[in-house]
Specification:
This protein has 619 residues and is α/β, with parallel strands linked by helices. The protein has 24 helices and 17 strands.
Length: 619
């Protein structure tokens, strides 16, 4: 390898250098050769299936590279390029001569090819200095890390430019690259979409529900491990639930297992006059209140509700039955204000795409085993997506079918499902993987196969596992949880101070932005650069302010992440006027959203403070 390249790798791309160094002794450099073409250029061949496979033309690799580069036109300077497959880099050099201002990555999955390139081509002679990274991704994990990084860091367009010969010779590697890219992008979009939809609701709900949290038992604290090796059933609202109603009735009447309905399934059970031992709920959306409309209308008091602390606050209003809570990972409010009396942090359940996964976590912590899934289709059944008795459910449409995907069902056949259901299935499989010493049985006839579960029909499960009464009357009885009152009072006072400080920091932030705007207008760029440092310091103070950390930044988590990821790009802007304007627009836009949220939650914050005061007075 060229000495200059070794020095550049050590200094600028140390991970790639360490990776290459660790592989150096195992590289098969005899399987790859640089040779001269008839026109006097260098070309590169690799040995594949005992034959020479050329990565560049044996005659004129420059003309071949021009053909690749000419496929890409109208490239804007804010585009990020991924060069997939490096070869000897002819296509990279030509592209960068035409588009020297783009940011770019060199991605090579074959270590020997990257080593050959770095032994031939001096990196300092690349036509552009905007090389963000050289990525040696010879395994799936490295590829996923690369995609996570580039998607997080790149808010602009990005284009992948493959070396065609490389793509053809190592087709399996390229196909895996594309599939992982699509998968990572889809997951990121889903994550951003979920955060955008719920980021404000999670915090608003946690604030409005805080009074209920203080005045109801925390089921995880009060009952953790109390149901060791008792069977429990998670009843979901999949269409297969209709076939199991009589089996569930038999289990309920004989107390053979604890029955937990999740989400809408409570309506199907109530429709058939079966009351579960508890109904769990956690969805932060306003619509979630509709799940319990019938129970509220009929004033059914015999179904305890176990709610996630960030559940849609409307869900809890006027609920006639007893309530128990579990702290969710999205609830930064309870996590700030509450502590056990023994000074230990509070156990929580982690957010998931479906209440069934949240309930699975809960039952595991309570000690239940086996955990039996009923109505967990996670796929369509004919035209149905839900069981009967759910007044707001609708049949699937032609559009749903068109957008659907096929997965394996419990019988090993193909079944149609949606991307949403499939995401829920994958999430459930991830959780089942980390649950130790617990058996999870899936009884859902015609449902999607769930890895980590055994499919056994419910009738057989009853005969084999549910042979005696286990359910105790008043099994959920408990006093409201005794959270540490002194700690709560201290945290409340600290937050009040942080609130006043937050308002002052916002003024400082806007003053600094206004100063930058004046300096840019006066073309005083040196002073503007110094003021950027001051702006960064104000932002750091905001990030460390409790009121922002607990309420405002989580309410704007997507915009906050975009701001953080844009800082490198802003600092790289060469034009001082453009740089100043971009900084002003980006930072002002973010704080405008934060300021609006502070104004919007003022009343809710005061209401929450009042709930805390009442709780502290009633010792």
């Amino acid at each position: 390898m060229l000495v200059d390249n070794i020095n550049i790798l050590k200094l600028t791309y140390p991970r790639t250098w360490q990776k290459l160094k660790s592989l150096e002794d195992s590289l098969d450099m005899d399987s790859i050769q640089i040779e001269e073409t008839k026109k006097g250029y260098k070309t590169l061949w690799v040995e594949k299936n005992n034959k020479k496979a050329y990565l560049h033309s044996k005659y004129n690799p420059i003309r071949e590279a021009e053909t690749i580069v000419n496929q890409y036109s109208n490239i804007e300077d804010n585009t990020t390029i991924i060069f997939y497959g490096v070869g000897l880099g002819y296509h990279i050099d030509l592209f960068l001569k035409k588009h020297p201002n783009v940011n770019y990555y060199i991605y090579e999955p074959i270590p020997e090819i990257l080593y050959a390139y770095l032994s031939y081509k001096p990196l300092k002679k690349l036509p552009s200095l905007n090389l963000k990274d050289i990525v040696l991704a010879d395994n799936k994990l490295e590829t996923i890390k690369f995609f996570d990084n580039i998607i997080n860091k790149t808010s602009d367009n990005f284009i992948c430019i493959p070396l065609n010969s490389h793509k053809n010779i190592y087709a399996e590697k390229y196909n895996q690259f594309i599939e992982l890219f699509k998968e990572t992008l889809k997951d990121k979009k889903t994550s951003i979409g979920t955060n955008l939809v719920f980021q404000e609701r999670w915090i608003l709900n946690s604030m409005k529900n805080f009074g209920e949290v203080l005045n109801t038992p925390n089921i995880l604290l009060e009952k953790k491990g109390e149901f060791k090796d008792k069977p429990a059933i998670i009843v979901a609202a999949g269409p297969s639930l209709n076939e199991e109603i009589e089996n569930i009735r038999y289990i309920k009447e004989n107390g053979l297992a604890y029955i937990f309905s999740v989400g809408s399934a409570v309506n199907t059970l109530v429709y058939h006059n079966i009351y579960p031992d508890a109904a769990t709920t956690y969805d932060p959306g306003k619509f979630n209140q509709n799940v319990f409309t019938k129970i509220k209308e009929k004033e059914i008091k015999d179904i305890p509700m176990v709610f996630g602390s960030s559940v849609g606050y409307e869900t809890l209003l006027n609920y006639p039955g007893k309530k128990y809570h579990m702290i969710t990972s999205q609830d930064s409010v309870s996590n700030y204000y509450l502590r056990n009396e023994n000074n230990k942090p509070i156990d929580m359940v982690y957010d998931a795409p479906t209440i069934a996964v949240v309930t699975l976590q809960l039952l595991y912590e309570l000690g239940f085993n086996p955990i039996i899934l009923v109505g967990q289709n996670l796929a369509y059944k004919g035209k149905k997506r839900h069981s009967e008795g759910i007044h707001y459910s609708r049949d699937i449409t032609d559009k749903d079918i068109e957008n659907g995907i096929y997965v394996k069902d419990v019988y090993g056949k193909k079944i149609l499902t949606s991307l949403g259901f499939d995401s829920m299935r994958q999430q459930m499989e991830q959780y089942i993987k980390i649950l130790h010493n617990v058996k999870v049985i899936n009884t859902t006839k015609g449902g999607a196969h769930i890895e980590g579960t055994d499919f056994i029909e419910l009738k057989i499960v009853i005969d084999k596992y549910l042979k005696e009464k286990v359910v105790e009357d008043n099994w959920l009885e408990g006093n409201k949880t005794k959270y540490d009152r002194e700690y709560l009072e201290t945290q409340s006072k600290k937050m009040d101070i942080a609130y006043k400080r937050a308002l002052k920091l916002i003024d400082d932030y806007y003053d600094t932005l206004n100063k930058i705007e004046r300096l840019i207008g006066n073309k005083n760029f040196n002073q503007a650069e110094k003021t950027y440092i001051k702006l960064d310091k104000v932002l750091r103070k905001i990030e460390n302010n409790d009121f922002f950390k607990v309420f405002i930044l989580p309410m704007n988590r997507v915009q906050y992440e975009l701001l953080a990821n844009s800082i490198d790009s802003l600092n790289e802007e060469k034009d001082p006027v453009k740089k100043g304007k971009r900084i002003i627009d980006t930072f002002k836009g973010f704080m405008d959203l934060c300021k609006e949220d502070i104004d919007n939650i003022e009343e809710v914050y005061n209401e929450m403070k009042l709930n805390i005061e009442v709780f502290l007075e009633n010792r």
